[in-house]
Automatic annotation (TrEMBL):
This is Glycoside hydrolase family 5 protein. The keyword Hydrolase applies. Residues 103-380 form the Glycoside hydrolase family domain. Signal peptide: none annotated. It comes from Thermothelomyces thermophilus (strain ATCC 42464 / BCRC 31852 / DSM 1799). Pfam families: Cellulase. Keywords: Glycosidase, Hydrolase. One of its GO terms (biological process) is polysaccharide catabolic process. Belongs to the glycosyl hydrolase 5 (cellulase A) family.
């Protein structure tokens, strides 16, 4: 009898737990109704970019260095990275998105018109190692690139951006050419030669990773608006097993090799655990042969915080979110220790309440600390199956801005700390 009662009680408790979970998830997915300021923003034309925030403006004197929490120019004037990610080169097709729809010059102009002064441009190691001729259909709107190889297309896109005065941060995103970041352990770090040979389609040693970097950067070393190398996207280990010190040492080896090619590049180092965790910097900073070159990078999404006591960022209050961000990365900014570029974050065009909660907390905090940032992403379409990208800031024509709550906040964030 007692056993039966206990079983019934346990089943009841489990049912309540799942009901509660279901209710919470449904609430997070309930569509968010845009607030008044977002609705007003959508009715007006996009405000023009602030010219003084671009590196091409006469305000700035290259090269860039770091000073405390800021990236600064040769005269000490802060250059805030207001960036957007333009993906595609690191994916299956090995070509930045949109070149089938628009000439790269027009897309570069659209980036500038949105107000972004810099672009994070991901590539895969496989793109560099195989460097295949690209399918002419993928560059249909760029007939001058017909027959070009993947790396030539990549370089042409960089040059189109810098010709518009938009700075570029090159990013090694993933080893095999595919959407990042799946569960494949072969893509979880900068090298995979410690894994069984049969496991990885694309095998890579640390040396090869650095050689690929040198191949890409050799093509860009004379371009002053190529400002930095974001060494590796979302380094991670199985169940949190990537020691920061191991990654920091590899980042130093790669960073020093690149600085021998061009001493003026910023070397960007992401945190471990999918770029969430920069706590190790406090005791083990990245130290390069040349000082004042290291910029750290954090990625912050609505699902970040997963598995922690405080829960995912979609569910957290503002104080709880700030506490987590501060512990993971923002202590470096608030303590004026080193710059942290929030190199990826983003939300869908039609957010649920959880997305909106995350977004509002994050953007409020980024404005408060006047952060360097890189929104994910520009692209209206994903490379696979030409799927719609709900995080896009451009419509399918690759030039028309999506005027909603995201661009409203990004526009405000771009202007945070400026007097113009
Ligand atoms: C993807 O869809 C867009 C919008 O319909 C279209 O302009 C583009 O040509 C498509 N690309 C491919 C490769 O199908």
């Amino acid at each position: 009898m007692l056993a039966l009662l206990l079983t019934v009680a346990a089943l009841g408790a489990a049912a309540l737990f799942f009901l509660q979970l279901y209710r919470t998830e449904s609430r997070l997915r309930t569509p968010w109704t845009p607030d008044r300021s977002s609705r007003l923003f959508a009715q007006r034309p996009l405000p023009p970019p602030v010219e003084g925030t671009f590196l091409s403006s006469p305000h700035y004197t290259l090269p860039l260095r770091t000073r405390g929490r800021d990236v600064v120019d040769a005269r000490g004037r802060r250059f805030k990275l207001a960036s957007v990610n333009w993906y595609g080169a690191s994916d299956e097709l090995m070509v930045p998105g949109g070149l089938d729809v628009r000439h790269r010059r027009e897309i570069a102009r659209a980036v500038r018109r949105l107000g972004f002064n810099s672009v994070r441009l991901p590539y895969s190691d496989e793109m560099v190692a195989t460097n295949p001729p690209v399918d002419a259909r993928l560059v249909a709107a760029n007939p001058d690139l017909a027959g070009a190889r993947a790396l030539d297309v990549y370089v042409a896109v960089v040059e189109a951006l810098t010709a518009e005065g938009v700075a570029v941060v090159v990013n090694n995103h993933i080893t095999s050419a595919t959407w990042c970041c799946g569960a494949d352990p072969c893509d979880a770090g900068w090298a995979n030669d410690h894994l069984p040979a049969a496991l990885c389609r694309v095998r890579q040693t640390e040396d090869q990773w650095i050689e690929h970097w040198e191949t890409v950067m050799a093509r860009l070393a004379d371009n002053p608006l190529v400002i930095g190398a974001d060494l590796r996207n979302e380094v991670r280990g199985l169940w949190g097993t990537m020691p920061w010190a191991r990654w920091a040492a590899a980042a130093e080896r790669a960073g020093n090799r690149l600085l021998r090619m061009n001493p003026d590049w910023l070397i960007i180092v992401g945190g471990t655990e999918s770029q969430n965790d920069l706590t190790g910097v406090a005791t083990r900073p990245v130290v390069l042969d040349l000082p004042d070159r290291v910029v750290y990078s954090a990625h912050v999404y609505s699902w970040s915080g997963w598995g922690s006591w405080g829960g995912r960022y979609a569910t957290r209050s503002y104080p709880s979110f700030v506490q987590s961000a501060r512990k993971n990365w923002a202590y470096l900014v608030e303590g004026d220790v080193a710059p942290v570029w929030v190199g990826e974050f983003g939300a869908p065009r039609s957010p649920g309440r959880g997305d909106a909660n995350y977004w509002n907390n994050l953007l409020r905090y980024l404005k408060t600390i006047d952060a360097d940032f890189g929104y994910w992403a520009l692209n209206p379409r994903k490379p696979r199956h030409n799927e719609t990208e709900t995080y896009a800031l451009l419509e399918d024509d690759w030039v028309t801005p999506v005027l909603d709550y995201r661009l409203k906040d990004l526009t405000e964030l771009m202007r945070a700390g400026t007097t113009t």
